Amino acid sequence: NFLGYELGTEFSRHSDVVDYFEHVAEQSDMVVYNSYGKTNERRPLTYAIVSSAKNLANIETIRKDNLKNAGLESGSASPQIAIVWLSYNVHGNEASSTEAAMNTVYKLITEKKAWLENTVVIMDPCVNPDGRDRYANWYNQVKSTPYDKNQVAAEHSEPWPGGRANHYLFDLNRDWAWATQVESQQRLKVYNQWMPHVHVDFHEQGINNPY
Predict the structure, then answer these.
(1) Which bin fits 8, alpha (ψ -120 to 50), beta or left (φ > 0)?
(2) Structural contact between residues 109 and 51, judged by C-beta atoms closer than 8 angstroms
(3) Mean pLDDT rounded to a whole number for the chain
(4) Residue 209 has pLDDT above 80, yes or no
């Protein structure tokens, strides 16, 4: 397969995630993949627009009709297409999230095509690439094979500062209102161009709780 390992058995580096989404966008007429900026450590910030080929061919009208309906652009419209925004891995050490993003885009364009007839799904596979790579690179260095489930094992003892926060150790999930960080400042410019009806912020709950 594309990654060289079964999805979910390894923590993917951010560059591999970007490569995967670029590959999917090249192979599918239901995915458009864009960059909206870079992090402090120069990793790309990206988003995918996922919908039917018909909707993607008409995507600007769909976007503007939604803004008109919300009173943010002049004119009237009665949009028929739902807009859903999925954000993954705002906390970098909740790292199953970005792996789930890769699985989700694959399932949407293969098994769940019918959902895309009346929905535009915008996916940000990693809100916090610097924190995620800090965590993933550390974990890939210390993990054992087979995995050691003992809680005192090195692979369960993430050192300071950990991967939760961004380059400046700021919790990006606390930055939506104030937008003090470059990730938020760049993301909000794109977000406000869409004003989605639903926003999902994916997290992990803890080692003994469900995803």
Answers:
(1) left
(2) no
(3) 94
(4) no
